Amino acid sequence: MTEGGRAGDLAAEGVPEAEFHPGIAQRMPRKGVAGGALIRNEDGLILFLEPTYKPTLDIPGGMAEQDESPLEACRREVREEIGLELEIGPLLVVDWVPAIGVWFDAVNFIFDGGVLDREQIQQLRVDPVEARGSEFLTLEQASTRLRPSMARRLAAAQEAVSRGATQYAEFGRL
Fold first, then answer.
1. pTM value surpassing 0.90
2. Where are the transmembrane segments (predicted)?
């Protein structure tokens, strides 16, 4: 970003181009965007949340709000869901998810949430509106409580950590 931040960057872009066909921008498809954090403890176990709004486990993170980047959404959701202000690290996985039921297709970004030490784990406060609880598990231990695509996405994130390279996936498949 420029010195002026996002506002400066937008100003530097200049006047937006006019629509060739008026109204086309409003008819263009839209995708959901989400940002999540792969957070581990010192033993390498993954932090999972038990959301109040769905039957499967999830990692801290969530959908981006209007004009919010996936990284900003990840930071906000981590802060809201577990009460920690974490330094969110590099991007691990970009995963496209097809439309399912009433949900539009989406792009999920998994960032490295780092390794929590014992003190940080003691400070962890799960928002009871967001989740019934949290636990550190191996991916294998959690797998029966995850959607298959999430298990694949998290396996790709673990591989990205070990390889030191971002992974691209489609529905969790590399």
1. no
2. none
